[in-house]
Design brief:
Layout (H helix, E strand, L loop, with lengths): L3 E7 L6 H11 L3 E7 L4 H11 L10 H9 L7 E5 L5 H10 L3 E5 L6 H12 L5 E4 L6 H12 L5 E9 L13 H6 L2 H4 L4 H17 L3 E9 L10 E8 L4 E7 L8 E8 L2 E6 L6 E5 L4 E3 L21 H17 L12 H20 L4 E2 L2
Parallel strand pairs: 1-2, 1-3, 3-4, 4-5, 6-9
Antiparallel strand pairs: 6-10, 7-8, 7-14, 8-9, 10-11, 11-12, 12-13
Helix pairs in contact: 1-10, 4-5, 5-11, 6-9, 9-11
């Protein structure tokens, strides 16, 4: 099967997320990165392209130049990966949609809910497909957890606890020249949320993805602990799900000593599921009688480990590879994958609504606040 020709915007020298997109797309076996606007500096764009194995003549200074040049080629790009800071997600996505390209964007979809709604409207008038790399929902055992909840294994869900704690921003790195910290703590580039947008959205998305339920209302406490910081570095919520379950979501980037403290616990009337990102291929089921079992991947249609070799599901690349594989299948004709197992614009809207509601409700000390 012919590989889909992929372009990338962002992902320049020093980027973490750009190589993740590149390697995930490559491991899917279905994409080939052939062009990129890796930096606004042409020389740096070409230098980054060399690292990706991209022809220097197909390395551009911005996404508009790339799209225009690639459209004129018989072998031009067919899809665009967006691996830029948040404020560039919308203009890149809109430019790609106008050119008839499919879009795989890093999360969050945009910097504001209004932008996400504009993106939704543009997609409604286009044949372009759009997906988001909420990468953890591509992890095999997260998809297994989702299938087990849907099967009724846990019975009615009563409580969901999600934590995502990191410590890398415990010091003001954005004030010391750290580029990754600088844009994340800059409202002009990150949006209204810092920690809540960067990692809190992962927890929120996973809670709804695994349970198949939606958060109906929440109490929000969004805070900034490091002096002089422009955006939040710690965010905590109490949740109430539409189906009746209670929830807790705690995220922090000032949790000293934590590297990847991402955990998910789902408690039902018949048992509970426990998953920890530092042991990502282990999904533990605790029955109501106390019996403990480690679950194996059994649910057809949700796991689909290929193209991953055995034992590879423990890498973040597993999520990227699985989601790029799903994206290729959607492009091939199975568009229903987007919005079901693969996050799409609806997930983008939900997470932006979550961020804005949480930030505003916390500032107003509003108590229980609906999340429409």
């Amino acid at each position: 099967m012919a590989k889909i020709r992929l372009g990338m915007t962002g992902g320049g020298i020093g980027s973490f997320i750009g190589p993740m997109h590149h390697l995930g797309a490559h491991l899917s076996g279905r994409f080939e990165l052939v062009a990129g606007a890796f930096s606004s500096d042409p020389e740096r764009s070409r230098a980054a392209g060399a690292g990706y194995g991209v022809d220097p003549d197909r390395c551009y200074a911005d996404h508009d130049a790339m799209i225009a040049a690639e459209r004129a080629r018989p072998d031009g790009i067919e899809a665009l990966a967006i691996a830029t800071p948040n404020h560039l997600h919308l203009p890149a996505a809109l430019a790609a949609i106008r050119a008839g390209l499919h879009v795989m964007s890093d999360k969050p979809a945009t910097t504001t809910l209004a932008e996400a709604e504009a993106l939704r409207d543009a997609l409604a008038e286009s044949a372009s497909l759009y997906a988001l790399t909420f990468t953890y929902s591509g992890f095999p055992m997260i998809r297994e957890a989702r299938a087990r909840v849907a099967s009724g294994m846990l019975g009615a869900i009563r409580k969901v606890i999600v934590t995502f704690n990191q410590g890398w921003l415990a010091a003001p790195l954005e004030q010391a020249g750290n580029a990754r910290a600088a844009w994340r703590m800059d409202p002009a580039r990150s949006g209204v949320g810092g920690c809540i947008s960067d990692i809190g959205t992962h927890g929120f998305h996973l809670a709804e993805y695994v349970t198949g339920d939606t958060v109906a209302e929440m109490i929000s406490d969004v805070r900034t602990h490091v002096p002089g910081r422009a955006l939040d570095d710690d965010a905590n919520m109490l949740l109430r799900f539409a189906g009746g379950a209670s929830g807790v979501l705690a995220s922090s980037q000032v949790a000293v000593g934590e590297r990847l403290g991402f955990t998910l616990q789902v408690f039902g009337e018949k048992g509970a599921l426990h998953w920890y990102a530092e042991q990502p291929e282990t999904l533990r089921f605790v029955a109501a009688d106390g019996a403990v079992s480690l679950l194996s991947p059994m649910s057809p249609g949700l796991l689909v480990r290929e193209p991953l070799p055995p034992g590879f599901g423990g890498s973040i690349l597993a999520g990227f590879a699985v989601q790029y594989r799903d994206f290729a299948k959607a492009i091939d004709g199975d568009a229903a994958l987007i919005g079901s197992v693969l996050p799409g614009i609806d997930a983008g809207l939900r997470t932006m609504r979550f961020v804005e509601t949480a930030v505003q409700a916390s500032a107003a000390r509003a108590g229980w606040t609906p999340l429409a």
